[in-house]
Amino acid sequence: MDKTLSEIPEKEIKKYHEVVGKHVKLLRESKKISQLDMALAIGIKSIAFYSNCENNKYDKHFNMEHLYKICKTLGIQMSDFFKEVEQDFSS
Amino acid sequence: MDKTLSEIPEKEIKKYHEVVGKHVKLLRESKKISQLDMALAIGIKSIAFYSNCENNKYDKHFNMEHLYKICKTLGIQMSDFFKEVEQDFSS
DNA sequence: TAAGTCATTATCCTATAGGATAAATTTTAA
DNA sequence: TTAAAATTTATCCTATAGGATAATGACTTA
């Protein structure tokens, strides 16, 4: 049966990634953690890649595995993290 | 400065993906939505790929964009979804 | 003022995530 | 009991996500 594919605009997904990155940065800074330290904590040697994900530059963004590790490093729950994101996203 | 890379075991990440998939299935079924309908709702024509993500088969799992669309389709918040996942994951 | 630290800009390379196909199996409904 | 619907199994292909590098810029510290 032919059904419509996703009608959620790519712009909305991109915006969501932007907000996710923004809140990762806010939380990281609040814990006085450098981009380098956070990058290493999630298993990445590239500060540049990390920076681009936080800032959603060149279409880079955090994936599920990154976020899982970031939250663990920050000592917070994924659900709490997304609570923050949602509050920002819907306003 | 040389610092340790992520010490979170890959098995833990895999387990997390498994639990995420499990809860997507539970919620989908509770809303009487077929795998086909959900796959199409998130912009995927392949039921097989969708099934493999729900069941974490052949290392397939949902990514952030999938989950965003799934939650929107289910009419729930990402934070609420992860609340469920976390309760299951830590027990 | 200079050196060190931290972050950003831009681009390149490639392994794999993404997602398809087809056949088989299981479940449901007629 | 059979057919249809739904899901699973397994594998293949390729565009891009993942992540690197190098240079540059901004900020902090000595």
Your description of this structure?
- The structure is a homodimer of 91-residue chains.
- By secondary structure, the first copy, chain A, is mainly α.
- The first copy, chain A, has one domain (10-86): 434 Repressor (Amino-terminal Domain).
- Helices cover 65% and strands 0% of the residues of chain A.
- Chain A has 5 helices and no strands.
- The longest helix of chain A is centred in the first third of the chain and has 21 residues, at 10-30.
- The first copy, chain A, is globular and about 40 Å long.
- The termini of chain A are far apart.
- The first copy, chain A, binds a DNA duplex (30 and 30 nucleotides) through residues 34-36, 44-52, 55, 57-61, 63.
Could you give a short description of this structure?
The first copy, chain A, is mainly alpha-helical. In chain A, 65% of the residues lie in helices and 0% in strands.
Average pLDDT taken over every residue of chain A: 92
Number of domains of chain A: 1
How far the N terminus sits from the C terminus of chain A, by CA atoms, comes to 37 Å
How many beta-strand runs of chain A?
0
In DSSP terms (H or I, runs of 4 or more residues), the helix count of chain A works out at 5
Largest interface: A-B, 36 and 35 residues
CATH class of chain A: Mainly Alpha
What is the percentage of strand-forming residues of chain A? Answer: under 5%
What's the oligomerization state?
homodimer
Order of helices and strands of chain A: HHHHH
CATH superfamily of chain A: lambda repressor-like DNA-binding domains
Overall outline of chain A: globular
- Largest sheet geometry of chain A: none
CATH topology call of chain A = 434 Repressor (Amino-terminal Domain)
Uncertain regions spanning at least 5 consecutive residues of chain A: none
Helix content of chain A: 55-70%
Structural class of chain A: mainly alpha
Radius of gyration of chain A: 14 Å
CATH architecture of chain A: Orthogonal Bundle
